Amino acid sequence: MEYHRKAKRGLIAAISSAVIGLGGTAHAEYPEKPVDMTVLFGGTANTIAQLLSELMSDELGQPVVPVSRTGGGGAVGYSHVAGTAPDGYNIVWNSNSISTAHHTGRVPFDHSAFTPIARVSTEIPALAVNASTGWNNLEDLTAAVSGMDGKLKVGISGKGSFTHLTSAALFDAMGVGDRIAFISYGKGKAPVELLAGRIDAAIQWPGQFASYAEAGELNVLAVTGSERVGVLPDVPTAQEQGVDIDISMWRGLAAPAGTPDEAVAKLQAAAEAAVASAQFQEAAANIGFSAAYQNAAEFKALIEEDDAFYSALLQDLGLAK
Which of 11, 57, 168, 233 has its CA 20 to 30 A from that of 212? Predict the structure, then answer.
């Protein structure tokens, strides 16, 4: 009996020594359970998130579950994720909206509340008008606005939204910023509002305009990035038309600040593999976004640079709080 007690004590000691030698705690390799991905917006953002989550699930060996938490220009979703444990099991499908949400006072924290994981994609906004206007480029629009008695009605997703900021920056660069009246179309779609004549112009994602442009119902006058976009290859950039502006929307993944490096590295690798996949590349071409992977360090630098830009722009527009 004494022999058995000694043998048992020896076995426990051996196991304890092995655990201590491995760092003091025994734990399974990340991830051990599903990862919750908060999706801030609908439309293209949601479409990309659904595909990304499927592809990342295959890489991680655990489900990445997209959950829609929309509202407040991203404030609802960001607030949820910022309040979760930094353990790698809660991430957010984020965008430039982290800067606009903070600088407009929708959330009390800034981008530093999150650990960047990877940039995944970019989208370049496009400016469209009803084809009945006869405007075919930015010069036509500028001439028309300059001769108007009233103001040009420009549809936006909401005050302080990305479409609002992009529109304000573009029309300021065109020299007609004081001739614009911004109108929120709420849950309405930009093409519908344009065709109904409730607004005169709108900036949205190219994929929303492509079929209407092909049908001859809308004229897309320009895109705001430094390069043309695949779904509207014949539409020139604003820069090509002499208007100095370069604005695009990035989307990526982030986790609460303090998330372990191991988890960030695994998520980053899964995102990289997803972006490189033929399925993701094909979706980019069809939907109208660009696959644009950046690792965590590169993404962090981009977010910081972007945050300074949007802070200054919101100050200029009198929207910063």
Answer: 168
